Amino acid sequence: MTAELIYGKELAATIRRELKQDAAALREQDILPHLTVVLVGDDPASRSYVRGKEKASAEIGISSDLIELPSSTTQTELLDLIQRLNLDAKVNGILVQLPLPAHIDEQAVINSIDPEKDVDGFHPANVGKMMLGEDTYYPCTPYGIIQMLKSKDVEIAGKTAVIVGRSNIVGKPIGQLLLNEHATVIHTHSRTPDLRHFTKQADILIVAVGREHMIKAEDIREGAIVIDVGVNRNAAGKLTGDVDFENTKEVASIITPVPGGVGPMTITMLMLNTIKAARRQAAAVV
Question: Where is the Tetrahydrofolate dehydrogenase/cyclohydrolase catalytic domain (predicted)?
């Protein structure tokens, strides 16, 4: 058995076509969805992500701008900027690209963003709504994973979902979103003793730890669905995941490749959240 692949790029393209229509419909109502991205410093990976967001915005019809700040920017200066953006009615979504320089408290910055403009879905108010199962802006990568599973008609309810990783960006929120879909969720991480004992129980296995090929074929049970969120660069400079893809694809029923799997969905969900923000803010004004 060779696993069926979920290519995030293909699903993202389908969703982006729908978002393009949504953006056009909003413009006909004189509503121009607008995303402001703030980049502090010159981290090459962050700059690459920002370019991807600018390209996606242009493709869909979302107005966007980039505010670039030097790495010497103080926390107070950054918070003052965010407050100005919070008060700017033309700005629907605010995204501060992480990571930030070490002297800036990332959580303080996230907390300062208006929850209605928090299109990353990281503000505690939005995290709380997610925990309660309320409609909100969901974190982009976890939300993209849910869409990927549904695109393959995966029945999530009643399944055992095992999460390897506990970050605030992926591990914790994907567990909650799966719980909201009525899965039985087991959270594990790098310090979990006998990790294989848990991963072998998974109907759905989500791996997001940032360790090359941490999960092997023998760590999963036959027929499991494997979502690999990890992006690592191996000794040859090639991008690879947290899962040993070549061997695991012979055991899993569905698996995501790296690259080309989860990654393309993250920016697409950001675009979805931005259009949702524009729609909600326009309705609030009326």
Answer: 6-120
